[in-house]
Structure formats: C-alpha cells, structure tokens
Amino acid sequence: MNKQKEEFRNNEAVLDIQDKPPFKHWLVLSIQHLFTMFGATVLVPILIGINPSIALFSSGVGTLIYILCTKAKIPAYLGSSFAFIATMQMLMKHYGYPAVGQGAISAGLVYVIVALIISQFGSDWVDKILPPVVVGPIIIVIGLSLATTAANDAMLNNSKYDLKYFAVAIFTLVITIIFNMFLKGFSSMIPVLLGIVSGYILAALVGIVDFTSVMQAKWLSLPAFDVMGVNYSFKWYPAAIITMAPIAFVTMTEHMGHVMVLNKLTKRNFFKNPGLHRTLLGDGLSSVFAGFVGGPPTTSYGENIGVLAMTKVHSVWVLGGAALFAIVFSFVGKISALIQSIPSPVIGGISFLLFGMIASNGLRILVDNKVNFELKRNLIITSVVLVVGIGGTYLKLGNFQLTSIALATLFGIVLNLILPSKAASEN
Hints:
By secondary structure, the protein is mainly alpha-helical. The chain has 20 helices and 6 strands. It has one domain. The N and C termini lie far apart (59 Å).
C-alpha cells in the first residue's frame, strides 16, 4: 500500500482494474464518476415522468450487479438508457409505469437469453464480424454521435442560444483541460470533478443555477419505489413486451461498442475474459432489477468511459464506489437535489472533452492496427459507417426504432462480410 501511495503522489503509475486506491482518494475518484453520470441518469426518468431518485438507486444497484456478474474484471458504470425513451413515453401515456417496468424487464431478459446462448456456443464470431476496420469507425461514431447533445447542453437555454450558457461551457472545458494537463499527483486524476466544481461555481456567480429544489428538498427522502406486483395488481402488457424487447438487440450493439472501447483502454479482451456472455448478463439483470423497482432500463455509460480514458484510473473499486454513492444519494434529498442542480452548460463543457475522448480511441484502433485505406474495401466500410452513424440516420417501424449507431454497426458488419478483400481493379 505504501508503494501505491508513493505512485499516487508521483503520478508514475495508473490504477489498474484490480488496484484499490487509498480510502480518501477512493472517495473523490468515485464522486467524480457519480457527477459524470448523474445528469444523464436522472434526465431519462424526468423525460418519461418517473422518480429520478429511483433511477439513481437502480443505476447504483445495477452497476454492482454488473460488477458481480463480470467477476469485477470490467470497469463500467450503468445508467439510464436513452434508447427506450420514445417507447417508454408512449407506454407511460397509455398504460402508466407498470407497462414501462414490464418492458424494462423483458428487454433485460433478452440480454439474459442471448448471454446464455453465447455461454454455450462461444463468442469467436465477434472477432470475425467486428474486425478493426469496423470497430474503429463504430467507436468514432459512438463518440461523435453525442456531439450534438454536448453542443445543445453548452449553448441552449429553453431551445434558444444563450451567450452566458456558452461562456460557462467554454470555461468548464478550458479549466478541465488545464487541470488535466498541468496538475500533478492525485489532483491530475480528478480533472473532471474539479472542472465540474469550477464550472458550477461560475454558473452560480452568473445566475444560472436554480437553488430552489435544493432548499426545498428534505435531508432524508425515501424514493417511491413502484415495485411490480406490490404497488399494482399484476396485469400483462403485451404492447410493452412487443415494443421494448426488440430494442434490446439495438442497445446490444452499443453495449459491445463500449466493451470494445474498454478493451482498448485497458489493453485486455473482455470478450474472452470474463466473456461477452457475462457482460451481457450483467447488463440484462441490471435492467430486470430496474424494472422491478420502478426505474428505466440501464446501459453502460460512454461518459464514464471518457473519464477512464482521461484519467487512466481503471480501478473497478472506483466504479463500485460510485455505485454505492448513487444508492446512498438516492435517499439523501439535499445532496441529490444539489447534484441535479448542476446546469446543462457545465455538463456540456465537460462532454465536449469526454465524448471526444471516446471518438479518439476509435481513431487509435485504426492507427494501431494499421488499417490500410489504400484498399477500397476498407475505405467503403469506414465511409458508410461514419456517415450513417454521425449523420443521425435511423430506421423507424411503428414504435420500434433502429438508432443511427445500431444502423451504422449493421452496415459495417454486412459490408465486412460481403465485400471481397480486394476490388477487381486492385487484383
């Protein structure tokens, strides 16, 4: 432990997956991840009309379930999934939360079933259908497809451009970069947290932080859990199952994309160890749990992967600590309200960097694997994936929607399988 503390002070080593940081550092590193995921995790329930504290609780428990299922070998945080928003809004309007909960459970069970199949037949197919020429552009798309979200958070106040918002966002971005580049020792590992705090202070000074909810919130507040079968008399909602279960196949592609990014960051192959079946099982059981307690389905978060990329602190203990904080804070009304009061331009400024980090790792995959763009095949695959994914292309059939990332992944996989290794003119 003394050696580890010395490494912390000199910033000579990165915390690996199983490394446990000193307690005081552990708390701060975990809170950094909590702040990073908080905005998106509570935004989803707000948009569909359910209790944000329940979403915070279910994300914390879901992350611990994921860590358990993956044998504590993968540093990832699971938060509320955006992919189901449109469908959940429709279900809430017509049937209420029981239908949403049933849909979340059915989507999670799809993950569980696929995980069981993979555990029996293996995942060698992943390397064949997802080579570097497909994986690299998909990861770039995952990062850049979020660029509009970051920009809107940074500039828009009630859908209108706000110079004050933009100034706060740019300040948050710049100060975070400065912290990341010039701080030494332990401070260099928490640039995101320091950036959020600095941005929040400036936002408060210029008057764009609303403290009303913080003042009104109680110190201790029990989330109104909508436990299936307890608060409601049980009833089947076929519409929920039919509309939400298929979306699980879409979010699986994003799930695998995040695992690929983590593979690159940690220099491991999580598809092999602990295995894709375990990552899918953890994600699926997390959504099943969320559906039972009244939360939205969960998924791994790119924002937290961005923090891992920036800080190079890959300790699963840190992510587990963030999960515990999320659970505790879901019962502490004042703290939950304080974090929820972080204005969107602060989150937007941080997101410029975090989402860019994800995209940059996709570029690194192409460079490190020396993908030859002299070959028309590679040029075509990359071009189609990037434009379809970043352009926001999507396929909608009724209430079922194939997102741009999922559609780009599908195009990449199909083109990789059908295109010859060389064009006729290259032979």
